[in-house]
Amino acid sequence: MSGVMKRMGMIFRAKANKALDRAEDPRETLDYSYQKQLELLQKVRRGVADVATSRKRLELQLNQLQQQSSKLEDQGRKALALGREDLAREALSRRAALQQQVTDLETQHATLQGEEEKLTLAAQRLQAKVDAFRTKKETIKATYTAAQAQTRIGEAFSGISEEMGDVGLAIQRAEDKTAQLQARAGAIDELLASGALDDQSGMHKDDIQAELDRLSGGTDVELELQRMKAELAGGSSSKQAIEGGTGQPQSQSQQQPQDTPRFDKQ
Question: What is this structure's pTM?
């Protein structure tokens, strides 16, 4: 049972992968990846802007503290000039506390400035990568589109070739069928001529009747020829002799069928 379930799982995954391959468009995937890279670049740029803003804020605080430190220093000098050593000491104590804050802020400012430089360099490198990816993406998309068009054209030509092949086969079959019919018609004519087949139309004669018709036709020609000779000779006696002579062939021709054996058609 476990083997059957395993096979079903493999078949399902194979079908799912095949369906995903058909549904996936590489151009859409490339556009999605490019969009994600742009979003990452925007985040890096916002990070650079945030660090720069913090650095500017520290610079403003440093300027204020330095101004206060200078003011306390002046106040200490004036107090000391007026003989107020205690007041001068208080001013210098406050100035020392401000100087400690200034030192801390300067350290933070240097750290932020270094971080800003790193982020700026990273943003520049990422921008270069995004630009290169965009160029490659457009190249791949153009190549894929061209290949897709070529594939469609090839498939169209393949379909036309298959259709033309079918047409060629149909023509060949028609020619073969026509040749068979012509050969059959010729064979039937030969069989009818030889008497092997009966002609139901009554238009075909057997060989004996054909020979009798040929002999009868030859006798008529001879009679006509003798008559023309008699007319040219102009003699009535010759004409009678010819007519008497022609009577004998006629009688012979009339007796000939009696001597000829009779063939009954079976």
Answer: 0.47
Shared domain for 148 and 226, answered yes or no, is no
Residues 218 and 161 in one domain: no
Which pair of tokens denotes residue 150?
């070529």
DSSP state, residue 261: P
What is the DSSP secondary structure assignment for residue 201, as one 8-state letter? T
Q: What is the pLDDT tens value at each position of the chain, 266 positions in all?
A: 566 676 666 676 666 666 666 666 888 888 999 999 999 999 999 999 999 999 999 999 999 999 999 999 899 999 888 888 899 899 899 999 999 999 999 999 999 999 999 999 999 999 999 999 999 999 998 998 888 888 888 777 776 666 666 677 777 888 888 888 888 777 777 776 666 655 555 555 556 666 666 666 666 777 778 888 888 887 555 445 545 554 444 444 444 444 444 444 43
Question: With contact defined as beta carbons under 8 Å apart, do 30 and 137 qualify?
Answer: yes
